Model the fold of this input.
Amino acid sequence: MPETWRRIDREWPDQPYRNLAFEEALVTSVADGVVPPTLRFWRNDRTVVLGRHQCADLEVNYDACDARDVRVVRRFSGGGAVYHDQGNLNYTIVIPRDEGPEFLERTRSFAVAADAVVAGLRTLGIAARFQPINDISVGEQKISGLAGTLTKRALLYHGCLLVESDLRVLGDVLNVAKEKLESKAVRSVRKRVTTLRELLGDVDMARVKDAIATGVAATFGVEVAQGEPHADELALADELLETKYATDRWRLGPCRRCTCRARPDDARLARVMRSD
Done:
């Protein structure tokens, strides 16, 4: 009998700090054997999510965030800044690190996680492909990106899939280096990305979730069964929310690699990085 993984659809769209605290609680719970390997689906409403080591001042257009009521939060995995709204579907895959030798090497494990999502998108008729290091593209346009973290005992990969996101807001709230745009031979971040709605027309979020779950089951050779968060996960998420994710120390730092840090107005910063 194939191994059974848990699928959970627990989310707090209006509480992005809680969503990200739960991500860390999830990887800890899988590592400790409290819960089985897990596929999670979730969304944030109007939020810029920074990678662990990124500088908010360099990545975020604060004026645009303030004008559009977009919050700025920080995840515990690496990678680049992304924009979330409720037309964006986030997926998370968490497995113990001893699942197989392919998960001991970062690039290969990224490819396996991406292949599962690609397989799901292809059941929807989308000719998606994995584009190393961590993008999923359709033609020359990005439709999803992945970020991940490896602990001693578990791996977490999460990505955001553009289902029907407002790409105008995405282009306004993120600062993208001119050199990056020129290297892609395009003028704006809007032209570098696409959505499932643009490719398929009307699209049902539940159908997209089921497709990805199907891709995960086929790629990893497992069954995926609907489940719920464990009480210990929820308790740990509450603790992490209070002691880490909602604190200024976490939200604003560490910016270890910045050579220039131009701090914004304190009041404006407080509005876009609020914890409510």
